[in-house]
Amino acid sequence: MSLLKVEGLRKSFGGVHALKNGQFELAAGSVHALCGGNGAGKSTFLSILMGIHRRDGGKIWRNGELVEFSSPAEALASGIAIIEQELSPIPFMTVAENIYLGREPLKRFGGIDFRAMNSAAQKLLDDLEFDIRADQQMASLSVAKMQLVEIAKALSHDAEVIFMDEPTSAIGEREAQHLFAAIETLKALGRGIVYVSHRLSEIFQIADAYTVFRDGAYVSSGNLADVDRPALIGMIVGRELGEEYIKTNEPTAEIGLEVQQLQSPAKIADISFQVRKGEIFGIYGLMGSGRTEIFDSLFGLDPHSTGRILLDGTAVKIGQPSDAMAEGIALVTEDRKKTGLNLTDSVRGNIGLASLPEMSPSFVMRRREEAAAAKAMIERFHIKAARDTMAVSGLSGGNQQKVVLGKWFLRNPRVLLLDEPTRGVDVGAKREIYRIICDYAAAGGTVVMISSEIDEVLGMSDRVMVMRGGRSAGILERTEANAQSLVHLST
Amino acid sequence: MSDVNGKPAEGLMGSERRRLLIQEYGIFIAFLILVVVLSVSNPYFLTAGNISNVLLQTSINGVLAIGMTFVILTRGIDLSVGSVVALAGIVSASFATTSATAAVSGAPYPVFVPIAVGLAVGVACGGVVGAIVSRFAVPAFVATLGMLSAARGLTLIYGNGRPVPALVPEFRWIGTGNILGIPLPVVILAIVFAVSWWVLTRTRFGRYIYAVGGNPHAAKTSGINVTRIRFSVYVISGALAGLAGMILSARTGSALPQAGIAYELDAIAAVVIGGTSLAGGVGRVTGTLIGALIIGVMNNGLDLMGIQSYYQQILKGALIVGAVMLDQKRNQDA
C-alpha cells in the first residue's frame, strides 16, 4: 500500500487551469522526485496536498483511505509535512521552541515546561544525528541547519510524508550532502519523501522514483534507474533539446577584465585573476566562501574593499555601483527578488531601472524610449509577459531572470558579472539563459559567472576559479576541471 | 501559482476588466458616491460657496498630504509636519507683522522675504530629518517623532509661547486672496498637485522614488543613489509643510504656537485613503488628493447635517481603517 496516492487532481484559478490532472503515488521508504518546469503545476499540487488550496476535483488517498484537507493543520494531522523553499522560522526563539511551537509541554499551572521541551527536542535532534543544540537561538543557525530543524519538526509531528520544495536552492554543496544524509535516515525510518528540485544531478543522486508534470498535467512516472538525464529532461520540457550546454564562444587573446589583489576585511583576501574578451570565467565555491563578495567589491557595493581593477588594460576606480556602471560593468545579483527586481513595478519599469539617466537626459523621462527599450528586450530574450506594463511579480522565475538580464543588456555592458544566473529557473529557461550568455561572450563580451551548480560551472566556463574560505584555491582550465577537482579544491 | 506561464496577450475578460477598473478608480468612485449622496441629502452642499469652502478647508491638508506621499512612497513616514507647520508659520509671520513685540527688526519686510523664510524653515527641518534618516539609518518614525517634538519646542521658544498677530495684508493675501474667484490656497494646492504629479509620473526623480520604495536593494544595485533620494523626499515634505504653515497663519491673520497639532495624522490619513501603500513603492498623488478631498467633504457634509465634530473623528477613523481593509481584500483577490 502506498503512503500517498493521488488521481485526477484538478484546480483552476479564475478560469485558468493551474492543474488539470495531477497523478502521483508515493511508496514508503522512498524518495520520489516531482519534476517539472515553472508553471508545470507542482506548486499547486503541493498546496492542495498541504491543505492550503481546495481542489476542484480528484482523489487523494493516505494509506489507502480517502482524505480531504481544508487546512494545513489537517494535512499535518494526517501525517503530511512540508519543508518549504523559503523557511519562516521564528528567529529569536530557540530551536526547541520552534519545534514545539503551539504544542509546548505545560507545567501544572499552565507555564511552559522548558526542561521537558528542551530534552525532547534534543533527543529528536540527536536521534537524527543532527549537530544542533535544542536551546540555540534559531537566528544563530545557517539556512541548512534550519532545514534540518524543520525535518526534526516534521518528525515530531510524526509525519510519514515529507515534501521538500527546492531544499538546496539556498544552501551549499557540502550542506546539501548533509541534507541528503538526513534524507537517507528518513528513508530508513520508512518515511516517504517527495523531493522537488530543478537540479537534476541531485535528483539522480538521491531519488528512487520520479513523476513528471508538464503544463498542469501528469506526464509520466517510473523508477529513476530506468531513465537517463536526457530522457528526463525530454519529459520535463516536452521536446528534444539536444545538448544542455552549447558553447559558442571562443576566448580571444585580449584581456577584458583584470583583478589584482582584491581584498576586503574578513571577507575575501588576495583575489587576482584575468578574464579575456569572449571568455566565460566561472567562479565556484560553497556558500560563504567569498564568491558573492568578489562581485560586491567589483561593483562598488563593498566600501571596505581594496585592490586594483583594470578594464581593457586601464585601471579604474569604483566606489559605488554607478561608477561600475559608467565603466560598462553589469551585475546580475544572486537573489533576483531581494536585489534584482522591484517587484512592485512593471516589466517595463524594471527593464529601464538601470538606464534611467540615459533615458532622461533632461530630467524628464522619455517614455517612448522606455517603452521601446522594454519591447526590444522582451523580444530579444523571448520574455513571456502578457503586456510590458504588467507587474513583474506575475512572471515565472525564468522570465523574471530574463527581465533582470534585459535590464543590464540594455546598457550594452563590457563586462557581465553573473551571480547564480539560473537559480530557481526551470530547465527550458535555463537553456535560453545559457544561450544568451554564450551569445554575449561570442560577440566579444567578458563574462564572470558564479555558480554553485557544478554541472553549470563545468558546462559553461572556459576556466574556473575555485573559492575556499575567502581565497582562491586555484584556477582550473576547462580541460582539467571536473566535479572531483572542484569539490576537492572547494572543501 | 499565479504566474502567466507564458500565455500570449489576450484581451482582458469582462470581469477582469471590471476588477481592474475598480482597482484603479475605486477611490474616485467612492468619492463620487459621497458627493452624490451629500448633494441629494442637502441642497446647500453643491452651491459654489460651499464647494469653495470645502476646497479651502482641504488645501492645507492637501499640501501636507502630497508631501507625505513622497515620503511614504519611499517606505518612510513624516510625523513632524504638524510641528513644522507651526514653526514655519510663526517664523515667517515674524517677518510680516506690524506688531512691535513679535516682529524681527525691520519687519514688516516685502512679502517675498517672509515667504522665502517660511520655505527655508521647512526645508531646514526636512533636511535635518532627511539626513538623520538617510545617513544614520535611523527609522523615519523615530527621526520624525524627534522633529515633531523639537520643532514644537522651537516654535514656543521663538514666539515666547505667544502668537504673532497683526500680519500685513500682502502676507494675509496668501490665505485670503482670490484668483479668478478661486481662493488662493486652492490655487496653491492645484499647483503643488500638478507639479508633484508631473515629478512622480514623468521624471527620472519620480522613477527613483518608486524604485527606492519598491526595493531599495535593487535600486542600489541598479546604480541609484538611495541615500540622496531618501534625503530629498524629507526636504520636499518639509518645504510643503513650510508652505502649509504660511497658508495657515495667513488665513488666520496671526501665527499661533499651537498651530498644526495632529496635522500629520490627517495627512497620513489622506495618503492611506488614497491607496498609497505604507510598505512603499505603490501609490499615486492623484489618490492622495482624492483622499484629502474625501476627508474634507466628509467633514463638511457632517457639519451640514449638524453632526457634532466628535462623531466626525470616529467616522474618519473608520474610513481610514476601512479603506485599507478594502485595499487588502483587493490585493488578495488579485
TrEMBL record, chain A:
- What Gene Ontology terms describe where this protein resides (cellular component)? plasma membrane
Known InterPro entries for this protein?
A: AAA+_ATPase, ABC_carbohydrate_import_ATPase, ABC_transporter-like_ATP-bd, ABC_transporter-like_CS, P-loop_NTPase
What is the first-listed, main subcellular location in coarse terms?
Answer: membrane
Q: What keyword terms does UniProt attach to this protein?
A: ATP-binding, Cell membrane, Membrane, Nucleotide-binding, Repeat, Sugar transport, Translocase, Transport
Q: How does it sit in the membrane?
A: Peripheral membrane protein
Chain ranges of the ABC transporter domain: 4-240, 246-489
GO molecular function list: ATP binding; ATP hydrolysis activity
**Record's subcellular location:** Cell membrane
Q: Which family does it belong to?
A: Belongs to the ABC transporter superfamily.
**What protein does this entry describe?**
Sugar ABC transporter ATP-binding protein
TrEMBL record, chain B:
* Keyword Hydrolase recorded: no
Query: Which GO terms of the molecular function aspect are on file?
Result: transmembrane transporter activity
Concerning CDD domains, the annotation shows: TM_PBP1_transp_AraH_like (cd06579)
Its keywords, alphabetically, are: Cell inner membrane, Cell membrane, Membrane, Transmembrane, Transmembrane helix, Transport
Does the keyword Transmembrane feature in the UniProt annotation? yes
InterPro entries in the cross-refs? ABC_transp_permease
Report the PANTHER family cross-referenced here.
Answer: ABC TRANSPORTER PERMEASE PROTEIN YPHD-RELATED (PTHR32196:SF21), ABC TRANSPORTER PERMEASE PROTEIN YPHD-RELATED-RELATED (PTHR32196)
Q: Which residues cross the membrane?
A: 25-45, 51-73, 85-105, 111-133, 140-159, 179-200, 231-248, 268-295
Q: Where in the cell is it found?
A: Cell membrane
Question: Could you identify this protein by its name?
Answer: Sugar ABC transporter permease
User: Which superkingdom is the protein from?
Assistant: Bacteria
Read off the Pfam families from this record. BPD_transp_2
The way it spans or sits in the membrane comes to: Multi-pass membrane protein
| Taxonomic source organism | Tianweitania populi
This entry carries the following GO cellular component terms, namely: plasma membrane
